[in-house]
Structures
1.
Amino acid sequence: MWKMIIGQAIFQVIATFVLHFAGPKFLSYPEAEMRTIIFNMFVWLQIFNQYNNRRLDNKLNIFVNIHKNYYFIGLNVVMVGCQVVIVFFGSTAFSIVRLNGPQWALSVVVAILCIPWGCCVRLFPDQWFGVTAKFVGTPFVLVYRPLARFVDRVSEKLRFAKKDSDPEIAESEASSYSGKGKSPLQGARTSGDVEKGVLQ
């Protein structure tokens, strides 16, 4: 699953950045039309990526039993219909302009390339992905863990400082304690002679 998430994220970022930064150099469209093409392509990337995500294993047939999944078909129809309506009639609300045929084709063709890219991601060996993810992810983990501990300690100190300055907060927390899965230990109250085993 992580392999597909990261692989599709790489494809979508590259496609979006190429159209955004290099698109005006090889496409002679005004800026408003370029922004609309990028927006349209990005939404269609999500629509076609739904098909890639129908399988979480490394098998290539992403259309297996698709005719039996009515929720998937219905959701896909709703997304496609909404996107077509937005591009044709949502100019003011979404700050976009109408697209012509070649612009629609550009948006959809670039987006549909995520399906063969998904096949390439599935063919990439899981062991190689594990080694690559560990190599690339280790610096992030080394930074994240100490940072998370620091933020946790600072927020705890702020909470205690706020509790000490406001007695009502301290009283409400004492009456309803909740925190990190631990509750304060309360002693058992008994009456009678506990040593003789007589309790009342």
Note: The longest strand covers residues 192-193.
2.
Amino acid sequence: MVRIRSPRFSTALAAVAVCGLLAGCAKNKVRAAPDVAAARITQIGVNSYLWRSALDTLSFMPMLQVDSEGGVILTDWFINPRTPGERMKVTVTILDQDLRADALRVAASRQLQQAGQWVDAPVQAATTQKLEDLILTHARDLRRRELSAKKS
């Protein structure tokens, strides 16, 4: 009895054989260790430097939602003891797996207490910009520290 194999089977068999040959060649190659800490660390869904930095920067605020896969940190309302008639809420979204300035978005909500009610108030653009700058600076510092630790 003669078996006729389908073209798909033959193609798949050839692909497996080529992969096996390439894998055998790759074993003999020695790769140099990278000299810098990777800017793209994605063991979670987003850049881990930005993620850790955002959590560190907002650690004084109560967290409402923290999603490392989606890259979203949502805080609950925070009332500064020095200004009890004002409260803030922050949302940080990490948009990319690379450590870049445009991979981060910060949005804030602010409310003032008036006649026993919380009323929405505008947030200065400088406030969210300052938070973004703090998170980015800290993320870069984390990366530098990791680089210097690897060199030691």
Note: Strands lie at 63-67, 72-75, 78-79, 86-94, 104-114, 117-121.
3.
Amino acid sequence: MPVQSTTAMLGWSTSFHLGGIVFKRIVLGLDGSDESTKALEYARKLAASEDAHVEIVHVHEYMIAGRAGMQPVRADEDELEATVRRQAEDLKSSGVDAHLTIVSTSAGGPAHVLADHARTDGADVIVVGTRGRTTLAGLLLGSVTQRLMHVSPCPVLAIPSGVSSDTSTEAATSAAVS
């Protein structure tokens, strides 16, 4: 039986080949954005091809607001969390071994939360979108994905915003075997 590259199975049009690398533990960062939804689809395909566990992490960011205490960075956080919960249930119902963890942190901390979670979970890869919900802290400190590239204990698969998540796994698998 021919060995097919994971990149071909996912439909990537790159010559990068993972060789003998297998991703059995995947950390997926979701924030409710369109880009994280694309990352979700790639994680779904990767998990299905490798029979992997997906640890979904959603981070609530809070900023210190003086005497008012901690305030959510995003006004629509409840809606975003509901979206992420639906996405996690959909991933599970598609047959993927997945678990959702929601973590709270101060503004600017999501990259460290994802990296720490990957370290604790023994993740083989972290999958994220390249642009998420932009915050003032994100503008000042840089994107979560960019920071994650510097603090991650494992490879980071960053799905660019221009990449289509509609890639057919069956078509890509057929092309890989040909």
Note: The chain has seven helices and six strands.
